[in-house]
Structures are given as C-alpha cells and as structure tokens.
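Journal club prep, shared notes

We agreed each person brings one worked example of a sequence with its structure written out as tokens. Mine is Glycosyltransferase RgtA/B/C/D-like domain-containing protein. I'm keeping it raw so we can talk through how to read the token line rather than staring at a rendered picture. Sequence first:
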Amino acid sequence: MKNISKKRVAYILYILFVAIFGFYARLWWIHNIPTQQVFDFETYQEIATNIFQHKGHSFGGEPIAFQGMAYPMTLGYLYRWMGSNDIMIAKTFNVVLSTLTYIISFFIFARLTNKLWVLATAFTVVALLPNYIAYTNVVGTEVLSAFLFSVVILLQLYPFDKRLHYPLLGLFIGITALAKPFFMAYPVVAAAALWLREKDVKKTAVYFAALFAVMVLVIAPWTYRNYQKFGRFIPVSYNSGYVFYLNNNENNSTGGWMPIKDMYATEEFRKQVDEILEHGQRSEKLAHELDPLFKAEAKKWILENPGKFLKLGFLRVKGTFFSGAWDIDSWTMNELREKQEWWDKVAFERNKNLFRGFSDMMIHLMSSFGLAYVFFNIKSALISLFNKKTLLGNHLIIPTVNIGFFLAIYFIFEGQARYNFPLLFLLAISAVLCIERIHRGFANTGNTPQV
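Then the structure, token by token:
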C-alpha cells in the first residue's frame, strides 16, 4: 500500500510539474519570441481593433464575414474590457486558453484510458508540444478553436442531466461553428459517436435534434446580421466557395491555396471575377459575391475531373499532417532572425534548426501513429455503424470519428500545416494508444522485435 501511495503521489506531482512548466513556457514564448502578424492574423487584429473602436465587425471600412467571427469578436470585446488593443492582451489571452486546453485534455484522456503511463505521456506531449506553445504568439483562431473543440469533446465524455447537457453541448458546438464554420456539420458527428456507443435510435435522434436546434439558435443572430449586410443567406462566412475553387481547379498542382490570378478560368469566368473585384481595386476578403460563383465552378470541375480531385485531396491531407512544423517558423517567430546580432548568426541558425527538427519529428510521429490508430479502428467503426449489437468504447469512438471528420473536411477543401492544430491533442492520445496497442501485442505474443 505504501508503494502504491508513493506512486500515486509521484504521479500527481509529475502532472502538476508538467502543467506548471507548460504554462511558464507559453508565457516565456510570448514575451521573448518576436513575430509579425501577417495575412489572416493581421486581418483578425484589424477586425478586433475595429470592434474595440466601436466600428463594428469590419475590415477596410466595410462589413466583413470572410472567416469565422468568434475569435476577432471575442478579442475585440476583450480589448474594450481592457481599455486597449495592445497585442500582448491577445497573446496573454491565448496563453490562458492554451493552458485550459491541456488541462481539459487531461480529463479527456482519463476517459479514454485507464493506464497511467498512457495518460501521463499524452498529457506531457500536449502540454509541452512546440506548436501549442508557439501559437500563443499569433493573433489567430487556432488557440480558441482548439480550446472550444476540447470542451465539445469533454462534454461528450462526461454526460449529465440531458435537460442541461444537450443544450450546453449544442451551445459549444454553435460557438465553435462561429469560429470554424465547418462545425455546422458537427451534430452529425456527435450523433454518430452516441450511436456507436449506445445503439439507442430514439436517444440518438433526440440528441441530434437538440444539438442541431441549439446550434442554429446560437449562429442565427450572426446569420441575420449577414443577411442585413449582404442581402443573402450566409450562415457564418462567405469564403467556402472561394476556398473550394482555389483548391480545386485545373491549375492547382499542390492541393493548397493559390492566388486568384493563378487559378484556371475561362475568359467569361475571369471577366465575372474581375468585375466583382473591380479589376483589382476591391479586396477578395470583402467580395462576398464570389462565394456562389466559385462554389458552382468547383463542383463543376470536380464532377468533370474526379481523378484529379482525388489527387489534390491526397495532397491536402499530406500537407496538413505530414509537412512538419514549418508553420511555426512562418507565423509564430518570423521576426526572430532579424533581431539577432551578426555574431550570433551561426549559433542562432543551429539552435533554430534543432528546434525545428524536434518540432517536425513530433508532428510526424503524432500524425503517423495517430492516423494509424484511426485506420486500425475504421473497420470496427463501420461494422458497428450498421450492427445494432456491436457497441464500441470511447477510446475507439472519439479519436476515430473526430479525426475522420477533420480528414474529410481537409480532403475536400483545403490543407496546410497549421490546420492540424485543433486536432493535435487527439492525435497525441491516439498516437500513444497506438503505441500501447503495439506494445500489448508484443507482450501478449511473447515476441520482441529483433534488431
């Protein structure tokens, strides 16, 4: 008993140490690693500043709904509360959210495994993962999205009175959809997870209906605002068609985003786009009229070129999960090199390359073992989906259904390294569970790998 007690105490102390160190690492990063907010991140800061200055959710003096509104609006009202739009407020807010994410992850992992070493390993990875630390430096939706997604998963794993549980989960799904619009499809994912776990038709139907209804109520005010501003039905944002076509057109060879000027377009289609963009005088972020036009062209091209679409989809998945951590250099520490004195150049490059190499290795390992765990489970999930007698455990359902959902979205629309961010905590536990399964297989057969 004394040995067990000592192990428990040591385990608790270890978890507390990792949690505190993870928080400190995030604080250290935002105060010591300089970065410039570029592209989407610069846009978020401008929108948040406009909200802070009582100019509404606007960009360039015009209303905007190009991306999810949850992050810039939350940040804008936080700026008002703090009385300043100092970017360090945004970074500190990210530190708080990121810390809450790995704390929530601990409780998620506790429902997916009863093995302490698996739980401790996955928690350590999430708390100290370079991506999760580095992105606290960025004024972007990544940190908020990961936090909201972790809450959505947590609520599915810790059910309580459905009169409160269902509306609360629907509320967080709605908020997450306002940050990442593709989450409007998430009630289907949550219902599928419940069905795989309980196989209760009536309960699953009520669950889906409640989640969907509450989600719609959450996003409805923003949808109404968009109708007032743009004169048409835009549930959350109007960039889905834009993203859809730029990633799926005849000139795309990478599966990723490309400038409008480089996309394939017939003379008539190019003329329509140029007129909407006023021949380069209007920002594409404000051109909501492009959305239905691009969406129609994307669907047409995919139907005519299914083979090329599949190739681009594969490239998008590869770009999201197997491109390493180049995004850390580009977005979270892009001013660091400029701050170095000339005599520190060699040491700086060596240390930066070491950090980048470690970060790349972590992402590749998590993606390899994490996705392998999902693929191992696909057969069981498909059988269970159509067999009322086969129930699955949360350790299989949660990673497989949720990672599968993100894979489908990225395969169809767009993929790049930073898009794996909301999934990293699930990839961490999936990877460790996969390693645990492999280890258990060797232990059960009495075999050990030969060198």
